[in-house]
Amino acid sequence: xxxxxxxxxxxxxxxxxxxxxxxxxxxxxxxxxxxxxxxxxxxxxxxxxxxxxxxxxxxxxxxxxxxxxxxxxxxxxxxxxxxxxxxxxxxxxxxxxxxxxxxxxxxxxxxxxxxxxxxxxxxxxxxxxxxxxxxxxxxxxxxxxxxxxxxxxxxxxxxxxxxxxxxxxxxxxxxxxxxxxxxxxxxxxxxxxxxxxxxxxxxxxxxxxx
Length: 210
Ligand code: ADP
Ligand code: ZN
Known about the structure:
With 210 residues, this protein is α/β, with parallel strands linked by helices. It has a single domain (2-110, 158-208), classed as Rossmann fold, CATH 3.40.50.300. The protein is built from 9 helices and 8 strands. Residues 9-10, 13, 30-32, 35, 52-53, 56-59, 64, 85-88, 92, 157, 166 line the site of adenosine-5'-diphosphate.
């Protein structure tokens, strides 16, 4: 099963993709995670994208498409995958259609108020990438990852200014993809406003209909 998860920043795409990928036995491919790993490892790509990402702007299509194209050549993608955070522009979607045939696009719907609430309380493990929230998904020990014991951080792009910019970029560049995939009969809406357990259940039910 080849799926795209789409939705505004903070819609929960990564949180929902993790357990669903485990259940389906397919990889979770998050361009945001791939970029953050490159930044952490100070690779050439990481150095190119660091400032762009901290400001909440989009990495140029050519760089992003090349990264995904390469990742999709790995053997673990044979049974399928979930793409989380890609494509984010019409240009990226057009490129993707040249090298992959997607089964469905899950669109997580959520209000702007909720986006801000979620992103401003978000915490992230620097080591394993697990996400937490100061109100709704607290770690057992404040500031420490339940899974690996390493420190949690606030993502640099979760600052109020960057959050506002990311929302603007989303409406400007990414939201047009909803119409794009609707026209291809691939779009499935899932209400992203509930609890994590509710959204996971709704997503699983939706995937069963594909
Ligand atoms: P979120 O969904 O919370 O906004 P992500 O972790 O998916 O965050 O992405 C973080 C940042 O990485 C984006 O704000 C953007 O700068 C960059 N990025 C991720 N995916 C793409 C993409 N497909 N095209 C361009 N930039 C991207
Ligand atoms: Zn961790």
